[in-house]
Amino acid sequence: MRIGVLTGGGDCPGLNAVIRAVVRKGVGVHGHEFVGFRDGWRGPLEGETMPLDIEAVRGILPRGGTILGSSRTNPIKIDGGVEKIKENLAKGGVDALIAIGGEDTLGVAKQLFDKGVKVVGVPKTIDNDLNATDYTFGFDTAVNIAVEAIDRLHTTAESHHRALICEVMGRHAGWIALHAGMAGGANVILIPEKPFDIDRVCAYVESRFKTKYAPIIVVAEGAHPVEGQMTLQAGELDAFGHVRLGGIGENLASEIEKRTGKEARTTVLGHIQRGGTPTAFDRVLATRFGLQAIDAVQDGDFGKMVALQGTEIVRVGLDEATKELKTVPAGRYEEAEVFFG
Amino acid sequence: MRIGVLTGGGDCPGLNAVIRAVVRKGVGVHGHEFVGFRDGWRGPLEGETMPLDIEAVRGILPRGGTILGSSRTNPIKIDGGVEKIKENLAKGGVDALIAIGGEDTLGVAKQLFDKGVKVVGVPKTIDNDLNATDYTFGFDTAVNIAVEAIDRLHTTAESHHRALICEVMGRHAGWIALHAGMAGGANVILIPEKPFDIDRVCAYVESRFKTKYAPIIVVAEGAHPVEGQMTLQAGELDAFGHVRLGGIGENLASEIEKRTGKEARTTVLGHIQRGGTPTAFDRVLATRFGLQAIDAVQDGDFGKMVALQGTEIVRVGLDEATKELKTVPAGRYEEAEVFFG
Amino acid sequence: MRIGVLTGGGDCPGLNAVIRAVVRKGVGVHGHEFVGFRDGWRGPLEGETMPLDIEAVRGILPRGGTILGSSRTNPIKIDGGVEKIKENLAKGGVDALIAIGGEDTLGVAKQLFDKGVKVVGVPKTIDNDLNATDYTFGFDTAVNIAVEAIDRLHTTAESHHRALICEVMGRHAGWIALHAGMAGGANVILIPEKPFDIDRVCAYVESRFKTKYAPIIVVAEGAHPVEGQMTLQAGELDAFGHVRLGGIGENLASEIEKRTGKEARTTVLGHIQRGGTPTAFDRVLATRFGLQAIDAVQDGDFGKMVALQGTEIVRVGLDEATKELKTVPAGRYEEAEVFFG
Amino acid sequence: MRIGVLTGGGDCPGLNAVIRAVVRKGVGVHGHEFVGFRDGWRGPLEGETMPLDIEAVRGILPRGGTILGSSRTNPIKIDGGVEKIKENLAKGGVDALIAIGGEDTLGVAKQLFDKGVKVVGVPKTIDNDLNATDYTFGFDTAVNIAVEAIDRLHTTAESHHRALICEVMGRHAGWIALHAGMAGGANVILIPEKPFDIDRVCAYVESRFKTKYAPIIVVAEGAHPVEGQMTLQAGELDAFGHVRLGGIGENLASEIEKRTGKEARTTVLGHIQRGGTPTAFDRVLATRFGLQAIDAVQDGDFGKMVALQGTEIVRVGLDEATKELKTVPAGRYEEAEVFFG
């Protein structure tokens, strides 16, 4: 069998580990042949490929990023995109496709499957907000990077009697903030799932300053105050339509300073959360995802994506990926709240 | 309620995180009072205690070891030991006990519970070989430390065209070797559950030397060859005139040198696998274990231990801890074998 | 002798190592007695002290921050400040003072010395911009943290074909940018000492995109374009008079996007560069500084500060600290330029 | 000019950084051409080469090991070895040679230079025991790895009331032990330069056990007791019935147990000290060494090796490399002794 592999969406530590596992087992055990598609769906859309054999995947296990490149190209939104992909797969003699990506990438995979393409998905989201799987790879790495940063912030906060805010990833789900905050000993954790009361946050800050320690606040980029509080200053839009300035972390610092009279500073972790070498947990999870994905292809079990349930890697329907966002349940946030203040 | 806390058995990253969570929620939410028993069961046996309040647990979340100290004292094996403990608990006005430890510590807890002591257990084993729980804290830290070492060994092996062997913990179960080996890109992984064939190991080593890479072998301390193989004893000279001593790692190096004529060297990771700051995963798991344990006490749900199942923290019978060793199943080892050679 | 110790100015990994060395040798070898002054010059100014003995310094060697706290209080600028300090020292029976801090802190020390206070200085600047010493502690830690971040950014940049900008500390001197950029394999390094030409930067970015790698730009917070280029948008001032938004990193990203049409993103490392555990280099340097400082006190050699010259710790005049900023010499920047583009 | 490059002797983090700097500046600035010789002197001896251009050195800066491979082949000890090398250099049109290695490798370089070969040396020793240079690359990485391990051992030692011994590299010079021990807060440091008195070591161990901390002993592999002390041989049973094997670390543990009645355990760090990614310090130093070496070639300044003096990279005679071992001076050891016990 000749199998195409692609990685779509945002960078995530463990992508290369998936690719390696797919190829190692595909070639070594099942006797498959592979072709790499470049930059997510752009690859099959434009017929841009790269060689993908045992040699190509040697040494990539510990490396962040993806040797295949990535993009956010969405063939569904392009006129004739799906047909073009089917055409290119046929032209290249590609029998099946393994698509590694998040909600968007897997959504495309589902639509292609519905139109007869043999596809298996591997879920990828650093935000851990996918319902069908207990964890996604990349998340553990992101959390560890954030915790290392928070560990460092503690000593600075204490030495300077200053509140320090650490803004982490998480637009719609607060998993990174929750885990990093719990592991980092944060005094307050703010997540998108639960609009925060700025008065309560300031009360925690002030009560913390009464100890010999100083407050550390971990805030997901998508967290926001309850309605009516903190008139958020809109940042400027850059050439690509992204907000450049003044995320929630910075706004929170201003607000805390204004209300408590104490100094507050923000660190926005940004891209370092999603790059670099994956943790052991992510390497093992990504490797096992890859092994299961290629087995699904070998079994002719298409339209599926792989998932972690407990300690087992299972297969679920591709539509599971796009069904519903897995947000932080109230119970998990209450666990963290025990340590607030 | 006045609650005693103790930690028994070997050191494990996350012990302090459990203690902190127990005390923070016990004092802050339930209004409990605590007493720390020193050095595992030696504490209640000899009535040796230390203060355990909010101040005592500040700042300990990221710290390895246990502020309570540990020992392998087993009151069951001491004449009148159990009675002595009951006496000391009564004398100290201790209503309930939280025992954090492995098979031995929890076995004692079970027996005390059977004799009327109100006890809740928190499982601890760096080896991850406890059946009742998906993972135990400390394991993820140990695996990450081992992987960091293996990452380093790769470049040395390649530069010197040398086989490098990394001996990790695991007397009866090969979990650390399995996960560290998979995550570290080992060419062979040897675990206690499956006696190895030295000829096959040497074949992997030789085939690896034909690539531009060099072999890395991860071996659990309890791994052993199939019967009749490898007779080299501690202290013999190897093929290169070096004295070979000690454990399976060293013996394996000798045997590989003798059989393949290639240089082989061993690194025994030892204690560094169980000390120091826990990973984010272990800090979160240990914290959640602590929260659940103190809730069990509050609920009067004694004779239980806490456990991880999927993403949930649950309570199971204390006897689950001592029932059966969780060894590496054949299927998991076969996953790893895909990458051998 | 009874000796006061204080730490002033910004947080810096290694401060605790200095304090520990001073106290361990002072008490253990010379038989001194110590008093800790809180929060830099605020301590002796307001007579706020804390106990400082062998027990107080146990376990602090690996910890970031300063157990004495810090502030930017400047007694010179306070009416009667110097007199107040002399009064408080006399009242507390303090025979000599060890002041650990940067240009400001040591400038005050010099003025006090001129007015008869027995003082020895220990230089501290994470920016490494002090002329009298080859290196200052904290710098090596900051550089390593930045390099770890840059290592992570590489894989993201490549996977997304995106320019990534890493803004590091350095308002007046580009040492952190220079070393982190060289060690991190940056394609361009921008430092305050040399106004950059945005056209040349964009040329590097574009030439880099022609390889399979992507550009990483390391920029010191104080770097700026040659006059007339890049109309910097002034950020808003916060309650403490700091610029909140839109540092050079963000402006550079906008400019690169505008000029090259390629995506560019910025990570501002901020406070994580100055917190947390020091590297081995900084722990050894800080310890040796502490030992030399207490020996200077013991020798009655006041008005001096300790310094590293080659591999030796020497004593130089306190005025050396404030003489002249040690900026990056042209030759060092030219070394780095070899790797640009 | 066509320039050969080789790396000889033991693995050392930073070798690839040197190679990269040499090639980047050689090709990019001076217009040189390069050829890589494989496995140290074996390469030019057997005429085994590999391509070495800009592409070959991309991405190798952060990688441990050496892309050229290494060996301990010594052409001086091989009949006609030197002539063979000259022949192969001539045959390959190699105008000059850059030899990166330790005492042995540079000793050969010196002899070749004396026989008319145009050679420049780059010193490499993880042990830092080379007189002509303040530091060698690889040393800082080794020390940091050792310190990380020691940081981890502290918590285990304390939790178990156990002495922990960490054996580090250093056969003839105790630099790694000295720096790692100082930075790791060791209670005793034992180095080859100063035979130790086992009674004094045991006294430190016992005094440490009287605090709430536990003893950590850092010992260089080449350390040894004063004559007549410690007669335990490999393979004997220690006071706790464990088989004691091997190096000074293990023997020391036995002796301490026998004499103090306290448990003692040893960790031998071994190869992980010399593998893996270099620290920022080592990357910068190795890069600057490479730049200076290729400039020396360009200047026709042969028979030299590069060296660090203060913050400057200078050139000294190749014979400086082999003159005299740089051992730890008494004064530096006395600094460390302040913290013993």
UniProtKB/TrEMBL annotation, chains A, B, C, D:
Marked site: Important for catalytic activity and substrate specificity: D104
Metabolic or biological pathway: Carbohydrate degradation; glycolysis; D-glyceraldehyde 3-phosphate and glycerone phosphate from D-glucose: step 3/4
UniProt keyword Magnesium present: yes
Gene3D superfamilies attached to this UniProt entry: 3.40.50.450, Phosphofructokinase domain
Keywords of the record: Cytoplasm, Glycolysis, Kinase, Magnesium, Metal-binding, Transferase
Any Pfam family matching the protein: PFK
EC number(s) from the headed UniProt entry: 2.7.1.90
Recorded superkingdom: Bacteria
Record-annotated Phosphofructokinase domain positions: 2-297
Enzyme active site: D127
Compartments, as annotated in UniProt: Cytoplasm
Annotated transmembrane regions: none
Catalytic activity from the UniProt record: beta-D-fructose 6-phosphate + diphosphate = beta-D-fructose 1,6-bisphosphate + phosphate + H(+)
Binding site for Mg(2+): E103
The UniProt record lists the keyword Magnesium: yes
Cofactor entry: Mg(2+)
Stored PROSITE patterns: PHOSPHOFRUCTOKINASE (PS00433)
Activity regulation comment: Non-allosteric.
SUPFAM superfamilies, per the entry: Phosphofructokinase (SSF53784)
HAMAP family per the UniProt record, alphabetical: Phosphofructokinase_III
Listed PANTHER family: ATP-DEPENDENT 6-PHOSPHOFRUCTOKINASE 3, PHOSPHOFRUCTOKINASE
Self-association and partners: Homodimer or homotetramer.
Family: Belongs to the phosphofructokinase type A (PFKA) family. Mixed-substrate PFK group III subfamily.
Entry function: Catalyzes the phosphorylation of D-fructose 6-phosphate, the first committing step of glycolysis. Uses inorganic phosphate (PPi) as phosphoryl donor instead of ATP like common ATP-dependent phosphofructokinases (ATP-PFKs), which renders the reaction reversible, and can thus function both in glycolysis and gluconeogenesis. Consistently, PPi-PFK can replace the enzymes of both the forward (ATP-PFK) and reverse (fructose-bisphosphatase (FBPase)) reactions.
Stated name of the protein: Pyrophosphate--fructose 6-phosphate 1-phosphotransferase
Protein source organism: Streptosporangium amethystogenes subsp. fukuiense
